Amino acid sequence: MSQPTIESILQEKRLFPPSAEFSQKAHIKSLEEYQQLYDKAKADPQKFWADLAETELDWFQKWDTVLDWQPPFAKWFSGGKINISYNCLDRHLTTWRRNKAALIWEGEPGDSRTLTYAQLHREVCQFANVLKQLGVQKGDRVGIYMPMIPEAAIAMLACARIGAAHSVVFGGFSAEALRDRLIDGQAKLVVTADGGWRKDAIVPLKEQVDKALANGAVPSVENVLVVERTKQKTQMEPGRDHWWHDLQQGVSADCPAEPMDSEDMLFILYTSGSTGKPKGVVHTTAGYNLYTHMTTKWIFDLQDTDVYWCTADVGWITGHSYIVYGPLSNGATTLMYEGAPRGSNPGAFWDVIEKHGVNIFYTAPTAIRAFIKMGEHHPKARNLSSLRLLGTVGEPINPEAWMWYYRVIGGERCPIVDTWWQTETGGIMVTPLPGAIPTKPGSATLPFPGILADVVDLEGNSVGDNQGGYLVVKHPWPGMMRTVYGDPDRFRRTYWEHITPKDGEYVYFAGDGARKDEDGYYWVMGRVDDVISVAGHRLGTMEIESALVSHPAVAEAAVVGKPDELKGEEVFAFVTLEGDHTPSEELAKELKKHVVNEIGAIARPGEIRFTDALPKTRSGKIMRRLLRNLAAGQEVAGDTSTLEDRGVLDKLRGGA
Ligand code: WT7
């Protein structure tokens, strides 16, 4: 990580200011207003956040200390008592929003459900009582492995209500990945479904849970709750497994929200690191509530009549912060869709927008690239005139894709918020405020008020305009992760020790390279470490390599990202075999399948190249940079002097 990361070749000069009409109605109406907010927050971050905490959230008891900063460990609003489920539900019930749609759900087969705030509150209270009856207590962890159905959000809010931390595991992960995460979090109970609909097929979630728990592999799990979604035949283990609808029957809907300490753990969410073991990112209660609330309000410019749709899965941080907690805390109408564009209906998203009159649409660049490929006749055949604001998240968006999104989906009328953030940051960090900040295609523009971001060198010095460097944050913010679950030292090492300012200040850095242009706009250039970004999701190369090596034929594996037009990157694996195995098409296929079983379909290698040896440094470190060049079909560039055996490279070039 010695050199500033990626070279910047992007030259984008187009500027798109919001229309006067949009700005007039927006929460933040002009660049001047943004600038004033930003300056005010910078001058006194604690006062800035405390004022908002006071006016925007409901507390059972006010805090004593706004920020307690023992680097790198922050506590926000210590001494305060609050409950995020209360802020997302109860407080709206005494207003006209009581009977407003909180959640509009659309199932893939075309079934749909709408839950008002009063109805959602009732379901959450009942399910919270079910959890209590099964012995779940404040401080316990609950695993959630669900399709995109309302019960996923209900389960999260019910956990928050009684003070149990949830650990949502993306439904696309395999049984093995689920098992590792349940073990790490010592989950007491798992909430799942018989299955979910995905691209016209059923994903058998309960079956995966059974595999994960087989042979007592996760002794902490006492009960499994199963939502009936797809109605296919499902094995239920007596004593352990229960149907959600059976237990929900006749249960009291009276369950007052537990007053939680501001810093009580709200959830764990696992994210890949560059070493094998997934990291349990820990978020706590009050700061996360405030940060997701404010970012949702100002960035998506929520108005009370809006229908807001974020296409993420609840299994990712985007689903936590911007399907569930941020929108509901604001009393918004949030839409949840179970399905995906697919062969039988490539225009599925546009149908949903038309059917529900969606006003705000938040998706990923990888999805936009897929839409482009499917053709603009799909969106053109639907009425998308309800849309007034668009957003993207997950990876840098290339200006072409941005322009297509702007023109075809937004009808040249909708601002686009390109939002940079991470699982670790809890909420959006660098982003346009759509009524205030003119956008440039491909730039996430400016930091959110209260976020003291910068682009620096390894000593923490700001680099000049248009120079590549490390994207860092120099002051704690309420939504930041608090620690790695069970491993505070890993938290320190991973995020706070790469950048080492001479004055000993602590600076947060989580792996992205960026540059700032002459207007102070941020251009994120991607990750500087060895993590691959497939369809907007970070995959640790180590995890995939470990999966490959766990196959009896494989001696060693090195995995790199290969640029892919659709997915951003594709997994490309270099594999050396054990002595008595020989390369073949069959084996390549088998290895791909093996990775899918071990980690999930998202990590499936697009290509496997067998080789006699891998290029390594003398200290035995695989030189991924060279492998990335080879995978991309480029000449090997840059310094190869640390290579132990240059012959290896020649063989690899030949595709040996
Ligand atoms: C990484 C975080 C945050 C939710 C989705 C992914 C990349 C994210 C952008 C953006 C450029 C972006 C970064 C970041 N990223 N948004 N707007 N422009 N890059 O969450 O899995 O924690 O990944 O996604 O590299 O570090 P995640």
TrEMBL record:
<feature type="binding site">
    <location>
        <position position="538"/>
    </location>
    <ligand>
        <name>ATP</name>
    </ligand>
</feature>
<feature type="binding site">
    <location>
        <position position="512"/>
    </location>
    <ligand>
        <name>ATP</name>
    </ligand>
</feature>
<feature type="binding site">
    <location>
        <position position="554"/>
    </location>
    <ligand>
        <name>Mg(2+)</name>
    </ligand>
</feature>
<feature type="domain" description="Acetyl-coenzyme A synthetase N-terminal">
    <location>
        <begin position="34"/>
        <end position="88"/>
    </location>
</feature>
<feature type="binding site">
    <location>
        <position position="551"/>
    </location>
    <ligand>
        <name>Mg(2+)</name>
    </ligand>
</feature>
<feature type="domain" description="AMP-dependent synthetase/ligase">
    <location>
        <begin position="96"/>
        <end position="483"/>
    </location>
</feature>
<keyword id="KW-0436">Ligase</keyword>
<comment type="function">
    <text>Catalyzes the conversion of acetate into acetyl-CoA (AcCoA), an essential intermediate at the junction of anabolic and catabolic pathways. AcsA undergoes a two-step reaction. In the first half reaction, AcsA combines acetate with ATP to form acetyl-adenylate (AcAMP) intermediate. In the second half reaction, it can then transfer the acetyl group from AcAMP to the sulfhydryl group of CoA, forming the product AcCoA.</text>
</comment>
<feature type="binding site">
    <location>
        <position position="318"/>
    </location>
    <ligand>
        <name>CoA</name>
    </ligand>
</feature>
<comment type="similarity">
    <text>Belongs to the ATP-dependent AMP-binding enzyme family.</text>
</comment>
<feature type="modified residue" description="N6-acetyllysine">
    <location>
        <position position="621"/>
    </location>
</feature>
<feature type="binding site">
    <location>
        <position position="549"/>
    </location>
    <ligand>
        <name>Mg(2+)</name>
    </ligand>
</feature>
<dbReference type="GO" id="GO:0016208">
    <property type="term" value="F:AMP binding"/>
</dbReference>
<keyword id="KW-0007">Acetylation</keyword>
<dbReference type="Pfam" id="PF00501">
    <property type="entry name" value="AMP-binding"/>
</dbReference>
<dbReference type="GO" id="GO:0005524">
    <property type="term" value="F:ATP binding"/>
</dbReference>
<dbReference type="InterPro" id="IPR025110">
    <property type="entry name" value="AMP-bd_C"/>
</dbReference>
<keyword id="KW-0067">ATP-binding</keyword>
<dbReference type="InterPro" id="IPR011904">
    <property type="entry name" value="Ac_CoA_lig"/>
</dbReference>
<dbReference type="InterPro" id="IPR045851">
    <property type="entry name" value="AMP-bd_C_sf"/>
</dbReference>
<protein>
    <recommendedName>
        <fullName>Acetyl-coenzyme A synthetase</fullName>
        <ecNumber>6.2.1.1</ecNumber>
    </recommendedName>
</protein>
<dbReference type="InterPro" id="IPR042099">
    <property type="entry name" value="ANL_N_sf"/>
</dbReference>
<keyword id="KW-0460">Magnesium</keyword>
<feature type="binding site">
    <location>
        <begin position="198"/>
        <end position="201"/>
    </location>
    <ligand>
        <name>CoA</name>
    </ligand>
</feature>
<feature type="binding site">
    <location>
        <position position="527"/>
    </location>
    <ligand>
        <name>ATP</name>
    </ligand>
</feature>
<feature type="domain" description="AMP-binding enzyme C-terminal">
    <location>
        <begin position="543"/>
        <end position="621"/>
    </location>
</feature>
<dbReference type="Pfam" id="PF13193">
    <property type="entry name" value="AMP-binding_C"/>
</dbReference>
<dbReference type="Pfam" id="PF16177">
    <property type="entry name" value="ACAS_N"/>
</dbReference>
<keyword id="KW-0547">Nucleotide-binding</keyword>
<dbReference type="InterPro" id="IPR032387">
    <property type="entry name" value="ACAS_N"/>
</dbReference>
<feature type="binding site">
    <location>
        <begin position="418"/>
        <end position="423"/>
    </location>
    <ligand>
        <name>ATP</name>
    </ligand>
</feature>
<keyword id="KW-0479">Metal-binding</keyword>
<dbReference type="InterPro" id="IPR000873">
    <property type="entry name" value="AMP-dep_synth/lig_dom"/>
</dbReference>
<dbReference type="GO" id="GO:0005829">
    <property type="term" value="C:cytosol"/>
</dbReference>
<dbReference type="GO" id="GO:0019427">
    <property type="term" value="P:acetyl-CoA biosynthetic process from acetate"/>
</dbReference>
<feature type="binding site">
    <location>
        <begin position="394"/>
        <end position="396"/>
    </location>
    <ligand>
        <name>ATP</name>
    </ligand>
</feature>
<dbReference type="GO" id="GO:0046872">
    <property type="term" value="F:metal ion binding"/>
</dbReference>
<dbReference type="InterPro" id="IPR020845">
    <property type="entry name" value="AMP-binding_CS"/>
</dbReference>
<dbReference type="GO" id="GO:0003987">
    <property type="term" value="F:acetate-CoA ligase activity"/>
</dbReference>
